[in-house]
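B., you asked whether I could sanity-check this one before it goes into the benchmark set. Here's the sequence:
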Amino acid sequence: MSDQFLREALALARQGLGRTSPNPAVGAVIVRDGRITGSGFHAWADQRHAEVVALSEAGGNARGATLYVTLEPCCHQGRTGPCTEAVIEAGIAKVVAITEDPNPLVAGQGLSRLREAGIEVELAPEFAAEAEALNAPFFHFMRTGKPLVTLKAALTLDGKIAAPDDNSGWITSAQARAHVQQVRHLSDAILTGINTVLADDCLLTDRSGLERSRPLLRIVLDSQLRLPLESRMVQSFADDLLVVCTSVARPERRKALEERGIAVLAADGPEGRTDMHAVVKYLAERKYLSLMIEAGSKVNWAALECGVADRIFFYYAPKILGGTQSLPVAGGRGKRSRGEAIQLKNIRLHPIAGEEFAVEGWIA
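And here's what the prediction gave me:
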């Protein structure tokens, strides 16, 4: 029976995805005499936590009941009060949490506080992998202090992302592109290179139509600040754009962008390129939990080569371009021997539409 309630809590947590960053998405249900008397999920970053919402709905029926929750209740004062105290005050008899909170301010202390108050506490490790995957950016950020960086690409079966001449049309289907928007929606920031902007005049916006806790931060790596002021990226600016350059960029170009309110970060990297580690640090300092890279061959390889990419999400279409001039998903110098190849782990396949599929994998 407890499995049923934990699955209900996970389903509730998913309703908050995209709306809670930098907080995790959490779901909770309160059960008394085998019946759910209260339920809730964390809907917005600065609003009540899932446990408090569920307790409010349960009212007096919370006393002597069991709380099923996807993440350990917090025990510190943040933008809202500690959930542990609300649970204790409501008279909950037992708490079943799927995982401990990786936040160093909690990290088991919430469960300890509940035990000290005489509340029975259990963990549900059989659901831990699912709960962590649901909040992968949050868990990654709390354990590493850095945003989770995902390298996304659409490619042919032979690993090509662009033809040498005509690149009109799309590699993948409308269904695949809609799926990309869902993944974008779960990201706090998105990054591309200036060559992609110049070639496609792209927007890089979240077009899922779903509510977000804050705007998707669009980032352009542009060492010499060639970003046109008339580009759609600049014209659509709404406090959601960061341009990363190097020290060789012309001051007047930087001034023109900053006068429009656009943030410019100077970060010198190797071989005259921008420093992607500086971008990750910039995001971490501002509590952006996740970054999605949607770029061209050179930027893709740079992200892999310098080690900022944590995982890949590649969409494959049942097509072959062939040829030595078609661009591979990751260009640059590449590895010089098979033994040096970048290894992936925890591979998952995602069916998309028809013969298309996506490959998700973590960089070992």
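One thing to flag: The chain is about 30% helix and 25% strand. Otherwise nothing jumped out at me.
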